[in-house]
Amino acid sequence: MLLLPRHPVLSSPALPSSPSPSPSRFRPLPCTNASTSASTAAPAGAFSVEDYLVTRCNLYPNVAARVAPELSAIKSPSNPDAVLAFLASALELSPPLVAVAVARDPAVLTCSVPRTLAPRAAELRALGFTTFQMGLLIARCGAAAFRSPDLVPRVQFWLPYLRGRVDKLVAALKGNPGLLAADLRTVRHTVALLQEEGTLTDDDVGWFAISYCSKLLTASPDEVDAVLARADGFGVLRRTRAFKDAIIAAFSATPERLAWKAAFFRDELGWTEAQVKTAAAKMPTLMTVSAERLRRNWEFLNTEVGMDAERVASFPALLRYDLEGRLVPRFRVMRVLQARRLWRGRDFNNIAAITEEDFVAKFIRPFLVNVPDLAKVYEAAIVKKEAVKHSS
């Protein structure tokens, strides 16, 4: 890591102290002889950038030696001191985060606080950022992103897709800091292409930004074209709502992984090629579900419920549902109602697909007079699932 474990941290009175992280998160790095000799070779009384990085920015000597050449224009500590004070006081960065920020972007020490850093903070506050959120932005994207003149336009681009929620944007940066680094011209082209071909709404784009698909929004045009081509392989027409799921599946899994999953359906579950294609076309994201869930759900649906592959392929969501938390409890309720001849329906997929609220309203409450323990049957199955979950 970047910190000296026993070195004074940002000792200037102007900088507020903050608790240091646990030692396990900041493992010491070995110091190089070259960096030590370089710092001691500086003339007496002369300003040494390398020494400053070690004593004031809390960098390891070997890290300081590596980044010092980038700061050769600095001849005195006055501007770097002002930057450190701004990071620590105005943005409330802890000393370890200040050290990380300087190590990742040494040029931040050359920035003007009144002309660059302070105005940038004011612009972000006007957009709804708190001091803490600005600190997270630097921690996740680096000081270079914070001081960039393109930062505010990029933030303004993403916020409408996230319904103006700064907290969602900051959360999205944890998974993809590139949201505030990618070229806006490329991003605009990609978003427009996805919205056109996949009929993505603005809310869909916002969901992409905070999901595992976030990096697709900042991918190169060639990468996006390759994903769209793979999505075509699911047999879903472009410019339909279903194509959005095809895009998600194509981006989330490599072609080799998708081919393996198709083979799993055929070889392990005994499905035909036509049945696999039917299921994949109806729900492309089914091909990203774990093999274990697919196997367990299929065995239950086939052996307990009595559904064949043709039927399940027509309702592939059944293979995605939580087995113990959804399928099994609802099936038990259905069997009780059928045994009492209170319900003559046989489409388990309809029971499995409705929301929890609708299921209770349609299949529990209306029958409590005739079957007083029906709710207990349902609840017992869910409690058993939770017990198994906690014991594993």
Short description:
This protein has 392 residues and is an all-alpha fold. Helices cover 60% and strands 0% of the residues. The protein has 23 helices and no strands.
Task: Describe the 3D structure.
It comes from Setaria italica (Foxtail millet). Keywords: Transcription, Transcription regulation, Transcription termination, Transit peptide. The chain has 392 residues and is mostly helical. It folds into three domains: 148 residues, no CATH class; 103 residues, no CATH class; 71 residues. It contains 23 helices and no strands. Helix 1 crosses helix 3 and helix 7 packs parallel to helix 10. It is elongated and about 90 Å long. The N terminus is likely disordered.
Report the end-to-end length measured between terminal Cα atoms: 36 Å
The count of β-strands is: 0
| H-E order | HHHHHHHHHHHHHHHHHHHHHHH
Using the alpha-carbon principal axes, give the shape: elongated
Q: Helix proportion of residues, in percent? A: 55-70%
Give the number of domains: 3
Write out key terms for the chains shown.
392 residues; mainly alpha; 3 domains; elongated; disordered N terminus
Give me the secondary-structure topology.
Elements: H1 33-40, H2 49-55, H3 61-67, H4 78-90, H5 95-104, H6 113-126, H7 131-141, H8 143-147, H9 151-158, H10 166-175, H11 184-197, H12 202-210, H13 214-217, H14 221-232, H15 242-252, H16 255-267, H17 273-282, H18 291-305, H19 309-314, H20 323-339, H21 348-353, H22 356-363, H23 374-391
Organism: Setaria italica
Pfam families: mTERF (PF02536)
Keywords: Transcription, Transcription regulation, Transcription termination, Transit peptide
